[in-house]
């Protein structure tokens, strides 16, 4: 009599599913970044932001590296409340990017997978898309950009 040995059925390996099918930031086709120097006057920042309908503007240092950003609505409120001089430099009102060993910089480039960008945007208002050396701000990405891409692509 022959006995047949039964072997347990192996479960297939768990594979993370990329709902964006390998799409990267570059596939969002974002417009070129609009950023301003830290020396720009608040009045000019507000004017340029409203012309372009931007809610947040990256602010750059003298070497064109990102220092932080300004929230346009907040600037406008302070101006209308008389809490600032329109000739003040924008550096006085910027929110600086946190860079420390406990909060490392998250590099977002044109080749960053959209799934990684989506995860980053769960805890951030926007992402600066830079080159690999973080020398140039190439674009600004938001959750709305990903949603629009998903809608267009049927994801």
Automatic annotation (TrEMBL):
Residues 25-72 form the CBS domain. InterPro entries: CBS_dom (IPR000644), CBS_dom_sf (IPR046342). Transmembrane segments: none annotated. This is CBS domain-containing protein. It comes from Tetrapyrgos nigripes.
